[in-house]
Known about the structure:
Layout: E1 6-16, E2 20-21, E3 24-25, H1 26-36, E4 43-46, E5 49-50, E6 58-59, E7 70-77, H2 79-92, E8 97-105
Antiparallel strand pairs: 1-7, 1-8, 2-3, 4-7, 5-6
Helix pairs in contact: 1-2
Amino acid sequence: MTHLSGHALRLTIIVGEDEVFAHRPVYSEIVILARESGLAGATVVRGIESYGRRSIVHTSRLVSLSNDLPVVITIIDEDAKIRAFLPKVTKVVKGGIVTVEDVAVLHYVGSHDEPAAGDDHSTSR
């Protein structure tokens, strides 16, 4: 289990859902690479509307324009781990944007994590 608290970096990658790398969606490739690299976790969210560098609006409201909607991949981890992961990201992302921001992790607990030693989260009293 990864322990994460205090200062960290948030890596945000925005690509079109139709972007592919090695016959796999870019967002899927990034999640797999993040897991293999031992990063704390990755989240992929599909957007409903966007426009980017070419000012073409992509939206889920119109069937004819509903292709290539935005996909946002967010990864938060220690500074060194995110910076070491960036070359893998830039190799995979051929269209889109990659940003890194400082964040403060206040609480990071998986839904199935066991309580740490000394924590009493039992319901019986």
